[in-house]
């Protein structure tokens, strides 16, 4: 009997073990599921594109495109692969030194053929490639980016704003590490539509680029630049520099943005600023008479004559601008004290930084002699002994377009331009009228019959080369304009670098570009 009890006891113990184990496993079930989920869940950093760069109308100027790529150890292997891809009608988006960007996915059979032909193992990966739809037309302005971020132009200046933070996504994987499924929003958000909007207008940029290029070619010039600015808002609508480069070309030769990076002596473009300052300070009146006889003047032992040996005789301040009189401006300029001359130029923004962000925001130079002799004042009065870029000139001319208020140029659409009063409304209007007379009966009379009435000033300066001095028969020919004259809306600056020395005046070389753009803008209802 005791033996039976013992056996029964052993049977009960054996019977309870599975039940206990089941209870134990049931208690640990959540721990097992959590561990399994950890083993089968993985994460990855989503490759994020840079923000798009858009013009004022939402047209893409720079965008990232996701492309399948093949990366090779050397250029030889890449070239072998390229030949095979072309024979297989595999469209290539871009071909760089060691990488091929493909338009579409590549099949395993083609990849196998490449591996056999080059005895190599190319790395297959998807990557975002920056693409610039308008290429060289916007090249010096937009610039380009690389693996290290923005390298030139807006891409470099606004790099911090164009970079999108890395995003991490999670997904489930099989026992063999295959991705099974993940979060839908991670896929949806890949390549989002974040963007940076500029004030540029692609229509105007395209037209201005073509007209500037033609003007450079016609005048046999070395290069040039041009811009169009909204006179009321300071928005830069077009910004063209030539020679240019195509940012999509990996073998590109970088060309600077002349509008910002090239500083030159503006010459006669400064004459309206000198006259305006003299009226403001009371050195002359609007109806003063300036005697320019006999067509030259000697200052500090230096003789200065009118261009072409002319003699304008007795003229008024307005005519010193419209006729571009060196002698007349010199006689006005020597009335300034040294401090007044510098202060007047400074009030119009010369020698001061632009508030617009750029890579090298230089100020230009103004002669820094403690005492300015009469020859120095005269030189500054007609635009020598100081340097500026085209944007600074546009900023200065905004004073005449805005009834005496100067406005800062801007390239970003989400900021407002600073404004500061420089002249009285009356003095600004007087200078604007004088600029109109330059077109009606002065150095830019080839524009007097344009349907859109243009006011402006020609400028032709001898080219100064650092370390060499003034170069023989090398000039910078410019035209600074405001239009329409009766209701100023736009400011346009055109500069041509080293035109044919047989025909180099700003009225002949640069002014026609403004006439053509005014027609185009009228046709497209900008005016």
Explain this structure.
The chain has helices at 2-40, 75-87, 108-118, 139-142, 153-157, 159-162, 184-189, 202-218, 258-261, 271-281, 317-322, 326-333, 338-347, 374-381, 390-401, 425-441, 506-509, 511-523, and strands spanning 41-46, 52-54, 60-71, 92-95, 99-102, 123-131, 144-146, 149-152, 167-173, 179-182, 195-197, 223-230, 236-242, 290-291, 296-299, 302-305, 314-315, 405-407, 419-421, 455-465, 469-483, 490-497. Mean pLDDT is 89; it is low at 179-191. With 527 residues, the protein is an alpha+beta fold.
Main features:
36% helix, single chain, alpha+beta, five-stranded antiparallel sheet, 527 residues, elongated
E-strand count: 22
List segments where confidence is low: pLDDT < 50 over at least 5 consecutive residues.
Answer: 179-191
The SS-based structural class is alpha+beta
Largest sheet: 6 strands, mixed
Strand content: 15-25%
The whole-number mean of residue pLDDT values reads 89
Gyration radius, to the nearest Å? 35 Å
**C-alpha termini separation:** 119 Å
Using the alpha-carbon principal axes, give the shape: elongated
Helix coverage percent: 25-40%
Total count of helical runs of at least 4 residues: 18
């Amino acid at each position: 009997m005791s033996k039976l009890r013992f056996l029964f006891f052993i049977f009960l113990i054996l019977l309870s073990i599975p039940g206990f184990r089941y209870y134990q496993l049931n208690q640990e079930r959540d721990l097992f599921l959590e561990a399994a989920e950890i083993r089968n869940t993985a994460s990855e950093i989503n490759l994020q594109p840079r923000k798009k760069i858009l013009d004022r109308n939402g047209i893409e100027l720079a965008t990232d495109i996701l492309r399948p790529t093949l990366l090779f150890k050397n250029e030889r292997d890449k070239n072998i692969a390229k030949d095979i891809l072309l024979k297989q009608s595999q469209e290539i988006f871009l071909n760089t030194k060691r990488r091929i960007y493909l338009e579409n996915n590549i099949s395993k059979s083609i990849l196998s053929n490449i591996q056999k032909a080059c005895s190599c193992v190319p790395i297959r990966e998807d990557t975002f490639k920056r693409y610039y739809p308008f290429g060289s037309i916007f090249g010096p302005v937009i610039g380009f980016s690389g693996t290290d971020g923005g390298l030139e132009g807006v891409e470099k200046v606004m790099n911090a704003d164009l970079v999108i933070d890395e995003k991490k996504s999670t997904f489930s994987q099989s026992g063999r590490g295959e991705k099974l499924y993940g979060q839908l929003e991670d896929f949806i958000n890949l390549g989002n539509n974040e963007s940076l909007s500029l004030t540029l207008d692609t229509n105007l940029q395209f037209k201005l680029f073509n007209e500037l290029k033609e003007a450079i070619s016609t005048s046999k010039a070395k290069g040039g630049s041009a811009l169009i600015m909204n006179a009321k808002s300071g928005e830069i609508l077009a910004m063209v520099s030539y020679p240019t480069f195509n940012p999509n070309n990996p073998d590109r030769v970088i060309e600077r943005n002349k509008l910002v990076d090239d500083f030159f002596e503006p010459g006669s473009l400064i004459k309206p600023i000198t006259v305006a300052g003299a009226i403001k300070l009371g050195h002359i009146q609007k109806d003063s008479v300036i005697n320019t006889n006999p067509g030259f003047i000697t200052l500090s032992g230096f003789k200065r004559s009118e261009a072409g040996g002319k003699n304008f005789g007795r003229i008024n301040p307005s005519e010193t601008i419209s006729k571009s009189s060196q002698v007349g401006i010199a006689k006005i300029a020597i009335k300034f004290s040294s401090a007044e001359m510098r202060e007047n130029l400074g009030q119009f923004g010369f020698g001061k930084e632009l508030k617009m962000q750029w890579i090298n925001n230089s100020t230009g130079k103004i002669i820094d002699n403690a005492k300015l002799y009469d020859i120095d004042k005269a030189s500054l009065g007609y635009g020598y002994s100081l340097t500026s870029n085209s944007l600074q000139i546009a900023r200065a001319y905004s004073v005449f377009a805005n009834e005496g208020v100067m406005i800062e140029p801007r390239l970003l659409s989400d900021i407002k331009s600073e404004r500061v009063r420089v002249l009285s409304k009356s003095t600004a209007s007087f200078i604007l009228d004088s600029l109109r007379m330059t077109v009606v009966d002065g150095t830019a009379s080839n524009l007097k019959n344009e349907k859109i009435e243009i006011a402006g000033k020609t400028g032709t300066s001898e080219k100064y080369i650092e370390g060499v001095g003034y170069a023989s028969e090398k000039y910078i020919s410019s035209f600074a304009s405001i239009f329409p004259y009766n209701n100023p809306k736009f400011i346009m600056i055109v500069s041509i670098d080293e035109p044919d020395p047989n025909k180099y005046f700003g009225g002949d070389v640069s002014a026609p570009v403004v006439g053509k753009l005014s027609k185009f803008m009228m046709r497209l209802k900008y005016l």
